[in-house]
Design a protein that fits this description.
The chain has about 475 residues and is of the alpha/beta class. The chain has 3 domains: about 90 residues, Udp-n-acetylmuramoylalanyl-d-glutamate--2,6- Diaminopimelate Ligase, Chain: A, domain 1 (3-Layer(aba) Sandwich), CATH 3.40.1390.10; about 220 residues, 3-Layer(aba) Sandwich (UDP-N-acetylmuramoyl-L-alanine:D-glutamate ligase); about 150 residues, Protein-Tyrosine Phosphatase, Chain A (Alpha-Beta Complex), CATH 3.90.190.20. About 35% of the residues lie in helices and about 25% in strands. The strands form 4 sheets. Strands 9-8-7-10-6-11-12-13-14-15-16 form an 11-stranded mixed β-sheet, with helices on both faces. Strands 17-18-22-19-20-21 form a 6-stranded mixed β-sheet, sandwiched between helices. Strand 19, helix 13 and strand 20 form a beta-alpha-beta unit. The longest helix is centred in the middle third of the chain and has 16 residues.
Length: about 475
């Protein structure tokens, strides 16, 4: 593509060898640059530019502030006030096609579940759909892992273009706060946008709740198509704020949850041994369906997915026919299959105070009167340290026995993290090593007890002192549990 064709009012040619200069692609990563590509400089580091040129970059996209550093060494330069936004626009030029119906889901908790549920409903109804998110990229027989919940702008547009080429017109994707803040999703044509909830998370990055919420609301204020529709859970104050935003912008919106003011309201939930029966109301219509979910928030997430599936063209009765066979997302309040039914072990990705609280409350609903709720959890290193006090307080209040252990300490001292949490959870047992904590918790379990292993869920690795090792909560727990009860 000609370099001069990649410009608009926010992207200008600073200098170029000749008007017909072509570039073959674009990348943020200097290591992935190939001959003839455009390098987008996000982190202002001259070494990255030198590396990109060495690998064959033909031009550089940068902020005006970098011109003095680059003018002498780079022959072809595009300048912009916002490199991330400019890169998203250019990526769209290189990869112009997208699925016709894109649903984006944002919120602190529930994004993965809603996206996964929508994808499951599509599969049940023979709709050729796809999902992007924490669990990777899924469509047809493809299941590809990704490092980010929401891909960077360049890779995202590449994957969208790929879906369209494969004649996939339906996509459900997670929209993380980082991605929205960093404009990774700009130029994505969002037809439907769903908001789940907002509670404390990622404040190491966003600094405060106001800025955190500001990143989330971009999906509705800036990215949702003017003729698109919003789906909003208003069981929390931030959901009500999103609704106000949509109302002020005259965006059609549909609300859901447990409250009386919801357009789609959950009015009755009955939990049985084999399934849960749910009754919902929309206007004057009542609908009932069965599912394998137990937690109130899981059922709420499923309702959000049902509404999205309906907006994407499915009849409500068709959607509700097979809800009982919808699978849970990996690592989301998943019960581990074991050799005995006397005790139960669940793993959950809950790594925020609110998510941990909701999971513990959900398990209390099925806990027998004389049984105990045992918890194993920790907090990640080099992340929002304010969560440690809150999660310790939640564990103290809602669990009977608590083992505080290591999550992903990263380069932070694991003992310091555990000790900080334990300050706010007096009943806790402090255990060095996640495997040891899981084994100790299982060893003290009695008849009808429930164990929740929280924080990592679907993750298959653990990072300690910069080293990433294989570690799977489910495998560790299942092996020891079956060993103990095989006698």
């Amino acid at each position: 593509m000609y370099l001069t064709k990649l410009t608009d009012q926010n992207i200008k040619v600073y200098k170029v060898e000749h008007e017909r200069l072509k570039v073959s692609g674009i990348s943020f990563d200097s290591r992935k640059i190939k001959q003839g590509m455009l390098f987008a400089l996000i982190k202002e580091n001259n070494q990255y530019v030198s590396d990109a040129l060495k690998f064959g970059a033909k031009a550089v996209l940068c902020k005006k502030t970098e011109l003095n550093n680059l003018e002498k060494k780079v022959k072809n330069i595009l300048v912009t006030d916002d490199t991330r936004l400019a890169a998203a626009k250019i990526a769209k030029d290189f990869f112009p096609y997208q699925p016709k119906y894109i649903s984006a889901v944002t919120g602190t908790n529930g994004k993965t579940s809603v996206v996964n549920f929508v994808y499951e409903i599509w599969k049940q109804n023979n709709i050729n759909g796809a999902s992007f998110g924490t669990l990777g990229i899924k469509y047809k027989n493809v299941n590809k892992r990704t490092k980010l919940t929401t891909l960077d702008a360049i890779n995202l547009h590449r994957e969208l273009d790929n879906l369209k080429n494969k004649k996939i017109n339906f996509l459900a994707m997670e929209a993380s706060s980082h991605a929205l803040e960093q404009k990774r999703m700009d130029k994505v044509k969002v037809k439907f946008a769903l908001f789940t909830n907002l509670s404390r998370d990622h404040l190491d990055y966003h600094k405060d709740m106001k800025k955190y919420f500001s990143s989330k609301k971009r999906l509705f204020e800036n990215l949702l198509d003017k003729k698109g529709k919003a789906v909003i859970c208003i069981d929390n104050k931030y959901g009500k704020k999103i609704k106000d935003i949509c109302d002020s912008k005259k965006i059609i919106n549909i609300t859901y949850g447990y409250g009386k003011q919801c357009d789609w309201r959950i009015i009755d939930v009955n939990r049985y041994l084999k399934n849960t029966t749910v009754t919902i109301r929309n206007k004057n219509n009542l609908y009932s369906f069965k599912c394998k979910l137990i937690a109130d928030y899981e059922i709420e997430n499923l309702l959000g997915a049902i509404i999205l599936a309906k907006l994407n063209g499915l009849k409500i009765n068709k959607i509700l026919e097979n809800t009982e066979s919808i699978k849970k997302s990996k690592g989301r309040l998943k019960k581990i299959s074991t050799r005995t039914k006397v005790l139960s072990i669940y793993i959950d990705y809950a790594h925020t105070p609110e998510a941990l609280k909701k999971s513990l409350i959900a398990l209390r609903l099925i806990l027998k009167f004389d049984a105990r709720l045992v918890l194993v959890f920790g907090c990640g290193g080099e992340r929002d340290k304010g969560k440690r006090k809150l999660m310790g307080t939640v564990a103290e209040k809602f669990a009977d026995i608590v083992f505080i252990t290591d999550d992903n300490p990263r380069n932070e001292d694991p003992a310091s993290i555990r000790n900080e949490i334990a300050t706010y959870c007096k009943k806790s047992i402090n255990v060095d090593g996640r495997k040891k904590a899981i084994l100790k918790a299982i060893s003290i379990m009695k008849k009808n007890d429930i164990l929740l292993i929280a924080g990592k869920g679907h993750e298959k690795t653990q990072e300690i002192k910069g080293k990433v090792s294989l570690f799977d909560d489910e495998i560790v727990a299942k092996e020891y549990f079956d060993k103990r009860f095989s006698l």
